[in-house]
């Protein structure tokens, strides 16, 4: 043991990187949350992949389903309570006042508009137009009593967790969970 | 410093192959650059390239969304014209810098 510890540490030379071999070829972005910022993170990453020539598949589950329903997609909120990074110093009691969350979400959307960020439904259209595929989780859809017609038309199908893993098949796939 | 030689003229490009000076661009050079990306340029391609160059000259930040709203092509057609990273590839062929856009 001592012998091992005293052995000089030799730096292993980095193997030459074959750029094409280790490339990300596909991403599967799983969005399990329905907060404005989480949904946008998922959308930006999926769309960003397509922009780089990387395939992108999206799987929405649990509260993430809100982002693909016709009713709520463009009306997502950011959480003002239970979110310590939101306006640090803001007392939870104030952040929880009626209308506060709606106001904060409105302000956030205004900032996003300034940056030319599309609304959720338009973002989903952009992803579909770029060759991305959007799916809803069967278990969560059943739980929330949501049917295909409740979702925006870009949702290709309602699938099981097994089907979701099949979307990630192939070399060079990364799964991103939000 | 990397250079590209076209028709006997030395054209300066950065490490990723983007032109340093958009004024050195010619449609013929675009055709040559497009061949490297396995794209054969059509009139529709040139419409997009000219639009990108015009916007760049105005100083407008470019994004896929803006191209979709340009009235020239929709986003689907844009991906079809320049497969495998349309904004990056079209900008390179248009002789303008790589857009720093996340959307």
Biggest chain contact: A-B, 17 and 19 residues
Helical residue percent of chain A?
Answer: 25-40%
Total count of helical runs of at least 4 residues of chain B: 5
**From the alpha-carbon coordinates, what is the Rg of chain B to the nearest angstrom?**
13 Å
**Largest sheet, spatial ordering of strands of chain B:** 1-2
- Tell me the number of strands of chain B: 2
| Overall number of strands of chain A | 5
What's the end-to-end separation of chain B, in Å?
Answer: 30 Å
Structure class of chain B: mainly alpha
Please explain how this structure is put together.
The complex is a heterodimer of chains A (178) and B (103). Chain A has helices at residues 2-6, 36-51, 92-95, 100-114, 120-129, 138-143, 161-167; strands at 26-31, 55-60, 133-137, 155-159, 173-177. By secondary structure, chain A is α/β, with parallel strands linked by helices. In chain A, strands 4-3-2-1-5 form a 5-stranded parallel β-sheet. In chain A, helix 2 runs parallel beside helix 5 (120-129). Chain A is globular, with a radius of gyration of 21 Å. Chain B is mainly alpha-helical and 103 residues long. Helix content of chain B is 45%, strand content 10%. Chain B has helices at residues 27-36, 43-58, 64-68, 75-81, 86-93; strands spanning 2-6, 9-13. The longest helix of chain B has 16 residues, at 43-58. Chains A and B meet through helix 2 and helix 5 of A and helix 3, helix 4 and helix 5 of B.
Describe the structure concisely for a colleague.
The complex is a heterodimer of chains A (178) and B (103). Chain A has seven helices and five strands.
């Amino acid at each position: 043991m001592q012998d091992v510890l005293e052995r000089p540490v030799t730096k292993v030379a980095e193997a030459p990187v074959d750029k094409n071999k280790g490339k990300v070829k596909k991403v599967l972005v799983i969005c399990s949350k329905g907060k404005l910022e989480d949904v946008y993170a998922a959308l930006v990453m999926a769309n960003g992949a397509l922009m780089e020539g990387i395939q992108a598949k999206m799987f929405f589950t649990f509260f993430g389903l809100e982002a693909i329903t016709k009713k709520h997609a463009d009306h997502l909120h950011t959480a003002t309570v239970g979110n310590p990074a939101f306006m640090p110093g803001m007392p939870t009691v104030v952040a929880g006042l009626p209308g506060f969350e709606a106001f904060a979400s409105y302000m956030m959307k205004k900032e996003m508009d300034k940056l030319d960020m599309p609304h959720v439904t338009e973002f989903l259209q952009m992803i579909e137009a770029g060759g991305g595929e959007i799916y809803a989780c069967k278990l969560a859809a059943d739980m929330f009593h949501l049917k295909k017609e409740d979702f925006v038309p870009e949702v290709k199908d309602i699938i099981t967790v097994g089907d979701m893993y099949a979307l990630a098949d192939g070399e060079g796939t990364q799964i991103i969970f939000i | 410093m990397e250079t590209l030689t076209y028709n006997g003229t030395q054209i300066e490009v950065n490490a990723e192959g983007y032109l340093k000076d958009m004024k050195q661009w010619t449609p013929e050079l675009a055709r040559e650059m497009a061949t490297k990306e396995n794209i054969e340029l059509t009139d529709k391609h040139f419409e997009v390239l000219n639009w990108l160059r015009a916007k760049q000259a105005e100083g407008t930040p470019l994004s896929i969304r803006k191209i979709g709203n340009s009235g020239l092509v929709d986003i689907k057609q844009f991906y079809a014209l320049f497969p495998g990273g349309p904004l990056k590839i079209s900008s390179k062929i248009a002789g303008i810098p790589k857009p720093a856009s996340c959307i």
